[in-house]
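Protein modeling request. Please complete all fields; requests missing the sequence field cannot be processed.
Requester role: graduate student
Desired output: 3D structure, C-alpha cell encoding
Chains: 1
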Amino acid sequence: MTSREANAIVKARPGRGQLELVCRERRPPRSGEAQLRVGAAGICGTDLEIFLWPEWLAERMSGRLPVVVGHELSGVVEAVGPGVGNVAVGDRVSVESHVSCGSCGNCAAGMAHVCERLTYVGVEHDGGFAEFATLPAYLLRVVPPSIPIEIAAMLEPFGLAVRAAAGAAGSGEGGLRGGSVLVSGCGPIGLMAAAVARARGARRVIVSEKAPRRLAAARRLAGILGIDRVVDTAHDDVVEVVRTMTARRGVDLWIDLAGSRDALRCGVEALVPGGEARLLGTAFDDVPLRLSAVVMKELRLVAVHGRLLFETWDLAVELLASGQVDLAPLVSRVLPLQAYSSAIELLLEGEALKILLVADPAGA
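Delivered output (364 residues):
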C-alpha cells in the first residue's frame, strides 16, 4: 500500500453481506471539501441494515455501489480544498451525516436536515469505515479537546437523542425541567435520550425494552445515566408502571425508538393530556395509531429525523464537554477496522450495545 492509498470497508455489490475491506486511492479534497484521518467510527443500525440488505436499501443504493459505509465518525482534518473556511488542518472534528442541497425550500427555511434532495454519508456518499474520508467541509464540526476522539464519533447519534429529549422544532421544553419522561427502546440512542432527559432536568426517567440483553444493559447503566426504572415489556405493564410512578398522572414526554405496535399503544396511553411524543422509531410496516386518544388528549406528535443544523450539534457538544452526559459507558468494544465482520456479528446477535471501529489496531 502506497502513501496515497488507504483501507476502507465498502458495500461491494448488492445482496446480504457483500462488505469487503479494500485498499483504495485517497481522493484529495476538491473545492468545498475536507479530508480527515478517521479517528473512530461507530456501527449504527443502518450499517447493519446495509449488511442485511432489505428492499428499501437495495432500491436506494444498488446503482451507487461500491460505497464506503459508515456515517458516525470523527477524526483530524488532514487537508482542505479551496474555499473551505470552517475547518483547518489539524482540527479535531465530528461529522454530520445528512447531506443537503442548500437550495431547496426546506434548506432555505432552516430545515436542511430534511432537505428535499437529502442524501446520506455512508449510503450515497463514501463514509467513515476507512482510514481517510473526504467529505463536504460544511458537514464537519470542530470538537474541543475535552471530548475524546472515540466519543466524538458518537456525536451524530447523540445529536438525535439531544434533539428528542431537549427540544424539537417548535416544541418547547416538553417533559423536561421537573417533568416525567418515558423512553421506548433501550438501544444506544434510547439510553442516550434518557441521559439527556435527566441532564436537562427531568424529575423521573422511565425506559422500556423487551430484548433481554438490552434490558440487562439498561439496568447495568441505569445509575450512571439517571434512569429511575427499567421496564421489561415482556412481563410488566408499562402504562401501569408509569401511572404508579407519576401519581396516576402520566408522563409529560414520550420518546419512541421502537416504532412497534405495542410501543405506540403504550406511549399514547402513558402520556398526560397535552403531552408530547417524539417519534424516532422507524417501522417499515403499517402500525396502528389510536387517533381518537391522540385527539381527545390533544397530544403533540413530533417526528425527529436528524439534527437541526447546527443548533443541535452545539447543545450536544456542550452536554459532553461539560460532563453533564458521559457516553463512554455505552461503548461495548473498540475494534480495529479489520475486525468489522466480527463487530457486525456481535451486534446482530445482541452481544454488544455500541462498537467503535478504529483504523489503528494499536488504539483498539
